[in-house]
Predict the 3D structure of the following.
Amino acid sequence: MSDPGVPEISVVICAYTEDRWEDVRAAVASVRAQSRPAVETLLVVDHNRALLARLGQEYRETGDVRVLANAGPRGLSAGRNTGIAASRGEIVAFLDDDAVAERDWLRHLAEGYADPRVMAVGGRTEPVWASGRRPGWFPEEFDWVVGCTYRGLPPGRVRVRNVLGGNASFRRSAFDAAGGFATGIGRDGNKRPLGGEETELCIRLSRARPDAILLIDDRAVIHHRVPEARERFRYFRTRTYAEGLSKALVARSAGARKGLESERRYTTRVLPAGVVRGLRDALLSRPGGAGRAGAIVAGVLTAAGGYLVGSVRARRGGVTFFVTGIEGAGRD
C-alpha cells in the first residue's frame, strides 16, 4: 500500500542486448533497493526475442517487475513509449539499462513534484569508466558524449529547458499534453548513436503547457557504465557528429531559437572556459591539458559539421520522425 497523497512512481528500463545482461540485473536491483519504493519496474525489450524470454524467466516470480516487448518500431523512443503506456504510476521515471541508481534516487525525484506545475524532474549521472579512470584527454564538458552530466550545468535543484533521458522522470499528464517520445530520432540499437529525443519532447511539452516547470536535481544520482570502446577518441568523434545530426532534427521540430537555446550558452561560455583551462593545465605541465583543449575544439567542429549535414537532409525531407499519443493501457 502506498501512502495517501504521495504519487506512485513507475520505473521504465529499456534493454536491447544480452551483452548487458548483468548491467540490466544491476539496474533492476538498484530500483528495488530504493528508499522510496517504486510501484513497479517495467523492463521493455527492443525486438530481441531471446532477451525477452530470458528476462521473463528471470523475473517471472516477482510482483514488482514486469517484462514487456517494445510494441513500436525498433529504437529507444518507441521502447519508452511502450513502458509509459503500460505503467500505472502518476510519475514515470527512466533509468538506463547500463546504470545503477543511488538509494535515494527516487526520493529526490519525487520531491520535485510537490509543485503541481512541475512536469519533469531529472538527476545527475556520473560516469563509471571501464578502464578505472577518466581518459586524460576527455573533457568533463563533453561527458554528455557518454550519457552523463557534463560540466557547465548549474548545481542544486534548478529549472532547465530539458532533462536528460537516462536519468529522468515525467508526470503522466505531461504525455497526455504533449504525446510521447518521437520515433525516428534518438537511439536505435547499434546504429549511429543519435540523441535528442528527450530535448524534443521537453520543448514540445513546454509549448503544450506554457506553465510547465522542468527541473534537474543533482541529488538524484545514478552511475552510468562507460565501456572501453566509448573511452576512445573515435567514439567521441562519432557521437559528437551524431549529436549535430540530432540537433538539426530538434531545430526542425522546435525552431532554431528554442531548439538551440541551451546550446548557445554552452558553446559561447562553457566550452571556451574549458579550452582556457586545458591550455592553462598544459602550460603548468599538468597531464592531459592540451588533449582536453584539442578535444573540445574537435568536438565543436564535428558537431557543427553534423548539424550542417542534418539541416540539409531535413530541408530535403530525407529524415522524418513521428510523434504519437500514449495509449493509457496501464491506467486502472
